[in-house]
Amino acid sequence: MKSRRIGVVLAAVAIVGTAVAAEVFTPRKLMARTAASQSLETVIPKQFGNWKLVPEISPVKPVDPEAFVQAPEIAAAKVYSQEVARGYTDGEGHIVMFLVAYGPVQNYKLKAHRPEICYTANGFRISEKTSSTLNYTDTSLKITRLVAERESRYEPITYWMKVGNDISNGVVDNQLSRLKYGLQGLIPDGALIRVSTIGLSKDASFQLQDKFIKDLFAAIPAQDRKFFLGNS
User: Which one of 32, 155, 166, 202 has the minimum C-beta count within 10 Å?
Assistant: First the structure.
């Protein structure tokens, strides 16, 4: 009887302890509020190097079937609060489609959706997914490459994702990054950066995309460049 009472007490203590720990370690502070808000429309130039805007080009947009979450400080927060979707030409007949989608909240309920998801939702088949790196000055940026196909459209894609200040492209990496910030009481913001081309072979596409990314970084002021590169 005595051992049973001790067991009941210990169970009660464990339950209370778990509840307290959950309350203490629940992230409450938005990382997005610790830095000045950026206007991506302003930060991303419409013309740089040999690249010029092609207004009639519209890249595939992110698809989010669960786009809203109810939170104490956010009545109806969309996954992405800013989106820039543009087409650029290099003057030699090549077109690059560029998309940046930023969201102030990247937690377990509300997280950025990868191109694999949004392209599949738009009827594309995804193949040849690989991880790679893009070297820019003294920075090595982790990127993901894949190919999306639908009917006669063949679209090689390069993308990377940010969770807080981390480049975090994989599912496990994303979870670890959110956990890391959560243990600091922070709800990280995040972004999806995506570059794609049509009308070229896979190798030619990725070569052109790398040039576009490097030319874009060279045109963006250093203080704004960290938004795209994180702590690479």
Answer: 202
User: In sequence order, which ranges of 183-230 are alpha helices (DSSP H)?
Assistant: 202-219, 222-229
* Contacts with 58 (C-beta within 8 Å, 6 or more apart), sequence order: 85, 87
Q: Which helix (H) or strand (E) holds 152?
A: none
Q: Residues 134-172: pLDDT tens digits?
A: 998 878 899 999 999 999 999 999 999 998 888 888 777
Q: Could you tell me the end-to-end alpha-carbon distance of the chain, in angstroms, rounded to an integer?
A: 60
| Phi, psi (rounded to 5 degrees) for 204 | -65, -35
Is the distance from CB of 203 to CB of 156 less than 8 angstroms? no
Give the other-Cβ count within 10 Å of 150's Cβ: 13
The number of helices, as runs of H, and strands, as runs of E, in the chain is: 6, 13
Please name the residues in contact with 21: beta carbons below 8 A apart, sequence gap of 6 or more. none
Strand partners, 96: 88, 197
pLDDT: which is higher, 61 or 185: 185
Q: Which of 55, 110, 127 is nearest to 86 (CA)?
A: 55
Mean pLDDT confidence for 67-78: 39
pLDDT grade, residue 19 (50/70/90)?
very low
